[in-house]
Amino acid sequence: MAARVMTRAQMGTGMRPLQSSSRPVFGSPARLAAGVPAQRLRLAAAEQQRSHTQQQQQQQRSLVAMRSSAGSELVPDDEFAISKISFGSILTPVGCFLLAYGFGAYFMLLPGADLSSIMLIYGFPISVLGFALSYAQLEPVKCKTTRGALELRDTQMTDIQKQIREDVTRYRGGQEVVFKEVRGRLYRGRARAA
């Protein structure tokens, strides 16, 4: 016979009482003994599945490594382009040199006192511009290309792909400021819509 047991929480809420039985909670001993080999079989099957999956992954990795090593050596991107030169790294030392030489010539520590004013006038804005370009520049992305892709680049690259490649492999300046401004406008627009 099943005895009715009620907890305090059930008494106050009007829930049905729990029913207990004389059967053991975990099943009969015969049932437990029959379940042990089945559980071992399940564990062995899971282990076999796991080792098979690991072998497949290892074979795929070795196949990819063989494909990449067989004629797919990386070619350095050595082509010269004026856009790959950082103007900030050129203008900063030139401006600082003109500024320093202009001060030295002005105080007659260096020769060229008659040109000191021109060096000071042009040295200051050039150095400030060089510092500004160095501060706001984004480094170019290192382009890793295989020999096969390099051969196909000229024949199969679209205009958009060419423009994207040129944009990411050159020094860019002021992009962070533009992104912050656009992001601010987008979030203000979302706040107004909500």
UniProtKB/TrEMBL annotation:
Transmembrane residue ranges: 90-109, 115-136
Keyword set, alphabetical order: Membrane, Transmembrane, Transmembrane helix
Protein name: Uncharacterized protein
Region (Disordered): 1-24
InterPro entries per UniProt: DUF2854 (IPR021275)
KW Transmembrane helix (keyword) present: yes
Organism: Monoraphidium neglectum
Pfam families listed in its UniProt record: DUF2854 (PF11016)
